[in-house]
Fold:
Amino acid sequence: MTICIRQATDSDFDQIWPIFNDVVAAGDTYGYRTDTGRAQAQHLWMQYPRVTYVAEEDQRILGTYYLKTNHDGPGAHVCNCGYMVAPAARGRGLATRMCEHSQQEAVRMGYRAMQFNYVAASNEGAVRLWTKLGFATVGRLPGAFAHPKLGDVDALVMYKWLAA
Structure:
């Protein structure tokens, strides 16, 4: 089967919710409350961002990401994204595909840079992947992420210029 990345619809949230809930409840990668409820999750993931996408295979959503403006005004040319992959689909390159897709979409939408505001330094897979895809760590917030098992770990700000 082939993976298709497409813009999410409201009806997709039934399949996004278990992915979101699994990732957020673990408390080890996202800065959302671990008890985030479905209605708040739907707002955070589907309504607040400028656009949300899903990665699906055979009509089954395996991953999702959002794309939004990081800051208005003079910073409106910089976007921010968040990515989530279903536990059963990890290790298949979906995060790579979604990040590459998000960069293309960001450029198409007029953004010139992408910033990840709060990457837990303990999320070594994400840090390694974002670095491989050209993101630089431009800031380190000491002890800013309260990891449920490791205690306070650093949060990273990662940035990539998209336009030449």
In short: The two ends are 35 Å apart (CA to CA). Residues 4-161 form a domain with the Aminopeptidase fold (CATH 3.40.630.30).
